[in-house]
Amino acid sequence: MMKRLVHIFNMFYLLGLSLWVGGMFLLGILVEIIVRIKLKEQPLLASKVMNSIMDVFNIEIIYVCIGFMVTAEIIKLLVGKFSRLEFDQLGVTKRRYVKECILGVMIVLAIYMGSFLRPEMHEVDKLKKANPADQKLQIRFDRFHSKFVNIYSVNMILGLSLFYIHGKEMTRFRKTLNETNESN
Question: pTM here?
Fold first, then answer.
């Protein structure tokens, strides 16, 4: 029973990570390029479309993904601590809690982007649209956008690192007889 519970929550962990990293790639690269190209003649509409798409992703979707992943980690911790089932965490990294630390950094960056940086960026965007001739507002907006892109890039790399660690945990190799003799 506990084994199945851990497997199910591990699936939710991977689902959350897939939606998070895949969404960053899909929305941050493909959708933005398509919207900007298709609505080149209407930059205000393009901005409005991208803002609404990214608002949903940066708040609702990423926070649900965080919920999946944190719940899975808590379940694994509780099963490992209170169950009679021996839950073996494979040591694929040199330090024990590398995966959890990476996830923690991703969560902090996502909350910063979604709850703090995004509202400030929207405010500057509104001011920029109200006064398109003001170059200082355009520069300020470009700095916000650049910061957003950089944080997205860092989070994407961290998410791919989690996939790599998870993949190493799932892939187990046995030493063959030749490898054992060579190491002696």
Answer: 0.81
24 to 53, 57, 110, 161, 163: CA distances (angstroms)? 12, 9, 11, 15, 15
**Which ranges constitute the DSSP H helices of 96-176?**
98-111, 118-130, 135-170
- Strand, coil or helix: what is 42? coil
Rounded to whole angstroms, the Cα distance separating 40 from 32 reads: 12
Sign of CA dihedral 23, 143, 110, 97: positive
The SS3 of residue 174 is coil
pLDDT digits (tens, 9 = 90+) for 46-103: 888 988 998 999 889 999 999 999 999 999 888 878 877 665 556 667 777 888 899 9
Indicate the range of 15-19, 27-31, 79-83, 141-145 predicted with least confidence: 79-83
Run of H or E residues at 45 = helix 43-56
d(CA 149, CA 184): 50
Nearest-angstrom CA–CA distance, 178 and 180 = 5
- Evaluate whether 162 touches 103 at the Cβ level (below 8 Å): yes
Q: What is the number of helices (H) and of strands (E) in the chain?
A: 8, 0
Q: Are 82 and 109 in contact (CB under 8 A)?
A: no
CA–CA distance, 108 with 106 (Å, rounded to integer): 6
